[in-house]
Amino acid sequence: MKNASIFHGTGESPNHFWFPWTKAELIKKGYKVWLPQLPGTDHPEIKKWLPFALKNGTFDSDTVLIGHSVGAPLILSILENIKTPIKQAILVAAFFEALKGFKLDAMLQKTYDWEKIKKNCQDITIINSDNDPWGCNDKAGKKLANNLGAQLIVKHDGHFGSETYNQPYKQFPLLLELVG
Hints:
Layout: E1 3-7, H1 19-28, E2 32-34, H2 46-56, E3 63-68, H3 71-81, E4 86-92, H4 114-119, E5 121-129, H5 138-148, E6 151-155, H6 173-178
Parallel strand pairs: 1-2, 1-3, 3-4, 4-5, 5-6
Helix pairs in contact: 2-3
């Protein structure tokens, strides 16, 4: 059965931005969708998020993973640790290195096994903006895409949802089009 998991970013919940809309649209397309509240969202830690995702998620050849902001490095860690390759990953406002001025080190791995990540996902797409205020921008996306041999789509859409910058971003049609 087709299944998708959507992982939010720091300080977010399943009710933020385009997440509820995307979940509803994917259900219409026949997907079973998991959109969890990740633990300790204000201070995300890979040592908490990764075990939670691995224990509760479904990872098989029909799986699509979608991650926003710090949800992207979570997906990278998931792809390093699963045993069965998945169908697709879409990383939105993605990064894998420390962002200047932000303390997200607890969410990032020191190194990533790019070959294992690529081996465990048939198709990876990265969507970043050239005007992301947090640094999850086209430059961060390009570095990530180069490491993964992935498609990079660059938009001019900020962080694809931000309360700080009053960017509600309630729908995300491009994302829906990309889901295979």
